[in-house]
Amino acid sequence: MKKDNLSDQYQINDEIRAREVRIVGEGFEPKVVSLREALKIADDMELDLVLISPNAVPPVCRIVDFSKFIYQLKKKQKEAKAKQVKIDVKEIRFGPQTDDHDYNFKLKHAMGFLQNGDKVKAYVFFRGRSILFKEQGEAILARFAKDLEEYGKQEQTPILEGKRMTIFISPKKGGAPKKADAPKQEDNKE
After folding, report:
1. Burial (0-12, 13-18, 19+ Cβ within 10 Å), 52
2. How much is the pTM?
3. Where do runs of H (alpha helix) occur along 84-189?
4. Per-residue b or e along 53-69, where b marks 16 or more CB atoms closer than 10 Å to that residue's CB
5. How many Cβ atoms are within 10 Å of 147's Cβ, its own excluded?
6. Confidence category of residue 155, pLDDT binned at 50, 70, 90
7. Cα angle: 142, vertex 145, 150; to 5 degrees
């Protein structure tokens, strides 16, 4: 059986080491009582006394069914995890002397990535003496960012890290514009 780390985070019933506690729960007003009295109240209701906030003065305990409490916490965590948006980073590599056809091919892929909600990391890789052409690399990345303005926004200016000059482009929030459909030709049958 798998060990549950959520239940290990909370002290329940006899594990609580405080003289007085503030008890909260459904069906009664919050009040400060001795630990013994709080345990008796929880026992009379056939529920557990769970230490919720140990750093408060006095510590806060909730009277609740512990297994149900843990189940609800797991359910909330699962819902929060499902709502998270995962953003992938797609890389596109250029050389300092990339020609127009290759550039347009990579530009089309970057547009698709941004429309799908992925970030694009574009970089120019310099080999050997090609590091002398930093200006060409910067020009390619500037042109790339300018061509993708309507699909995403550039996060920073090009940065040279070792032999790579890099930029990041993140997708626009409202969604990228869709390509306009060509007007439909109606067949005129007479």
Report:
1. middle
2. 0.49
3. 100-115, 134-147
4. eeeeebbbbbbbebeeb
5. 14
6. confident
7. 145
C-alpha 149/C-alpha 152 separation (Å) is 5
Residue 85 makes CB contacts below 8 A (sequence gap 6+) with 117
Within its chain, how far is the Cα of 181 from the centroid? 34
Residue 108: DSSP 8-state: H
Greatest pairwise CA separation for the chain in angstroms: 95
Single out the residue of 93, 165, 92, 100 nearest to residue 132, CA to CA: 165
At 151, list the tokens.
């699909």
Q: What angle do CA 104, 107, 108 make, to 5 degrees?
A: 90
Q: Torsions phi, psi of 68, nearest 5? A: -70, -40
What is the tens place of the pLDDT at every residue in 79-129? Answer: 888 877 777 888 888 888 888 899 899 899 999 888 888 888 998 888 887
Tokens for 80, please give them: 């929060």
Which DSSP state fits 154? E
User: Tokens standing for 177?
Assistant: 């514009």
Strand locations in the chain, DSSP E?
A: 20-24, 31-34, 48-53, 60-64, 89-94, 119-125, 152-154, 159-161, 164-171
Helix (H) or strand (E) holding 98: none
